[in-house]
Design a protein that fits this description.
Largest sheet: 5 strands, antiparallel
Shape: elongated
Number of domains: 2
Order of helices and strands: HEHHHEEEEEEEE
Structural class: alpha+beta
């Protein structure tokens, strides 16, 4: 392989790695409170996209160097082969096991049916971890607003609409009350200790 062709392949691989990172960036930003739901679901796959970027960068390094001796080729294969197998296993497991969690409750707002209160178990183990969110809008313009995450020791009990623009989240040690404006954005909680 000529040097110019090898350099061209290296830069194509590096460009593809950069493209994978740029595809992941909007998904990461949408995973924050107030982000777009569909963009997060489709693009927030860090293991898959960042893993692909790392694999492409390693491939560009491999193409860049020449391994002319037999021992260099054997040594490189001995190091790279387990990394490839482990990388494929991690990518497959993250794709199969990963997800949005298990939806526990979904309650539309009393005055705004497009404002939906959701409780999701996001733990992939026996012990529950509850994420409470307010979803507003529909389709590609739907946004999610995080109201909090409660682990097993936090004593989450329930989340419910207690008025037309009012959400109450009850735990064993505290009660949080959120007010929701007309656009669906929740205001900071009023916390009452129990």
């Amino acid at each position: 392989m000529t040097v110019t062709r090898r350099n061209r392949i290296v830069w194509w691989l590096r460009g593809a790695a950069l493209a994978a990172l740029l595809v992941y960036l909007p998904g990461y930003l949408s995973s924050r409170s107030g982000g777009l739901v569909e963009v997060e679901r489709r693009l927030n796959h860090p293991v898959l996209l960042i893993g692909a970027a790392v694999v492409l960068l390693v491939a560009s390094v491999v193409v860049r160097f020449e391994f002319r001796t037999r021992w260099a080729q054997i040594g490189f294969a001995a190091v790279l082969s387990p990394l490839i197998v482990i990388g494929i296993a991690i990518g497959t497991l993250s794709f199969v096991v990963g997800g949005d969690g298990r939806l526990i409750e979904r309650k539309p707002g009393p005055d705004h049916p497009d404002h939906v209160l959701t409780v999701t178990d996001i733990a992939f183990s026996i012990d529950p971890v509850y994420r409470v969110e307010l979803l507003t809008g529909s389709g590609w313009s739907a946004r999610h607003w995080s109201l909090g995450t409660w682990g097993e020791n936090d004593g989450f009990l329930k989340a419910e609409w207690t008025g037309p623009a009012r959400i109450t989240v009850t735990a064993t040690h505290e009660t949080r009350v959120y007010t929701v404006d007309g656009d669906g954005r929740p205001a900071g909680p009023e916390v009452t200790r129990r």
